Structures are given as structure tokens and as C-alpha cells.
Amino acid sequence: MVKSKDDNKNDKLKSVEVKRDTVIDKALAVGSIEPKVEVDVKSKISGVVKKLYVDAGDYVKEGQPLLEIKPTPTPEELVNAQQEVERRDINLQNAKIDYNRQKKLQKKGYISEQDFDQVNKTYDQAKLELQAAKDKLELLKEGRLDTGTEKVESIVKAPISGYILEKKIEIGDPVVPLTSYQAGTVLMSMADMKDLLFRGTVDEIDVGKLKEGLPATLKIGALPDKEVKGIVSRISLKSQDKDNSIVFPIEITLTQTNHALLRAGYSANAEITVTQHDDVLTIPERLITFSGDTARVEVLKKDGKTEKRIIKTGLSDAMKTEVKEGLKKGDKVVEKAPKAIK
């Protein structure tokens, strides 16, 4: 029997068999490994760095000395501070004289209790202003101060227990103090490296599919053989504009590190599992032709002929697609021939 041209053509058709597999819809986040809490170490006094007791990478306990600041007041600052003490001392002496005089008048009934209270407040205020001026002078000279309620000293101590992530100053560098009106010089950064997380961003196309608690697998660029697990713990309500794209910041809490030695700043990609369908019929998505809401495939029958068939698709990961109706396991779907290059 002589084969027709169509039979010869069908003999050359390539096909893919329908099989059962797992389809996972994932969202990709790009970011890095970071400490959950990172602390900037600052000084309450101005000056220059006199001594350094630790270096980057060292582990320190809360209260351990990190560095010492040497006060460097200008001659003008010292003179002004000394003159301020003298002025406040004179004010106090005058307030004391007035207080004693008014107290005698008050006992004789010549002034009211209300007027005497005002004199008493002025006297107390003068005491406080003198002490504040003395404290400032001591701080400028000695670099330390103990008011009883607050202790300020030239030795900066660790605010938490953890590792020194970065040392941002060297001996001799100037230091601006932390005050209510200025941020102050960051001397070092610290963190407890036991509490790490992933901070990154996802594209706005994917953020609508995400929710807190979804599982994620992290791939660390510096540790290609290690796979770290986590769960989505925060999704930002506000977007960011990054490289002309709209993205949303997210955080992933690490749940399983597989003994990976993680360092702050490691770049990482997180694959977040949005939906997973196990043991379902699947075919490669490239075999499907979509026309509006209709999906079609070309099936190779046992007699070598082909037929067009409408199918109902389900979940897709952009590589393989779940088939809900129209095909069964073992069916062979025709592979589309590549277009000839003209």
C-alpha cells in the first residue's frame, strides 16, 4: 500500500505525551539577607576618636566598651562655658539675696504667699541654671558627666549584644554628638546575626497574589549549593519606583537555613509559592494555541492522523500547564514545527 503525502508528513510529526506532574505558580522577589534589627552606634559628646577597642566582625556584649572619644573644645568654647558659669553664679547670688529678703517680709505679712512663691521659683531656677552651666563646662573639659539620673562619658559602650557589622570611623576622626536637633556621627553598626530575614521587592503584577504566611525558597548568590526556606512575613502597602518599574517591598522570615553561614548583605532571590497543584495532567505550554478564552491543541491519534481538540486549562507556571479537560494521560500532543527563517 502506497502512503499518501499526508501519511508521510504525519510520520515526521513530533509529539509530547500527556503526563501527571506538579504545577507551581511562583512569584519572584529580588533582594538581600539583612539583620532584622541593625543598630547605629553614636556618641553623646563631641570630639575626636581617641581609642578603638573593637573591629568589624567582633562579637561584643551589651555594655562592653567600643571606643573612646577625646573632647576637643575650642578655646572660645571653653571661655564661653567658664563665663556662663560665672554669670549663672552671680544670678544665683542675687536670687538668694532677694529670696532671703522676701522671706523676712513674708513672715511679717508684708507680701502675699503668691508673690513669695514666685521669688522661690526664681531662686530654684537660678540653682538649676548654674548646675547646667557647670555640667556643660565639665563635659567640655573631661568628656564625662554623671548627673545622678543620666551618665554621659567619653567611652562609648555597646547598646546591644551582637556583632560589629561595620566600623565607620578611625582614630583621629571627628565626632558630632547625637542631640535633639542633630543626628550625630554614626560610629559603628551592630546587629544580632541570629535574627536574620530577607528584604526585597516583587513586581506589581505578582503582589496581588501574595499574602503573609506563603512559603518561599531562597537562593543565595554566594551559596549556590545551599537552599534556605522561609515564609512571607510582611508585604508593603506602598509601592516604590525602581528602574522605571513599580515594585512592592516585602520581608521573608527565615525558617530553615540548612546550616548555611549567612552574612548580612548577601544578595538573594526568593521564589514564593503562590499555588501548587500536585499529580495533575500537564503538557508544555508551548503546545497550546490560545484564541480568546479558548485553548486548542493538535492531538496525534493512534492511526497516525491528527485532530484539533479544545481543552480546558488550569494552573500554569509559564513552562507547563495543567489540563483539566480534553486530554487524558498518554495522549500525544503534536509539537509545533519551528517557523522557517526567511
Strand order of the largest sheet: 2-13-17-15-14-18
The CATH class of the largest domain is Mainly Beta
Shape: elongated
**Structural class, from secondary structure content?**
alpha+beta
At CATH's second level, what is the architecture of the largest domain?
Beta Barrel
Unreliable stretches (pLDDT < 50, length at least 5) are: 1-5
Gyration radius from CA atoms, angstroms = 37 Å
Range of strand content: 35-45%
Largest sheet: 6 strands, antiparallel, barrel
The named CATH superfamily of the largest domain = Efflux pump adaptor protein, beta barrel domain
Comma- or semicolon-separated keywords:
342 residues, disordered N terminus, 6-stranded antiparallel β-barrel, conserved putative lor/sdh protein from methanococcus maripaludis s2 fold, Elongation Factor Tu (Ef-tu), domain 3, 4-stranded antiparallel sheet, 23 strands, single chain, elongated, alpha+beta, OB fold (Dihydrolipoamide Acetyltransferase, E2P)
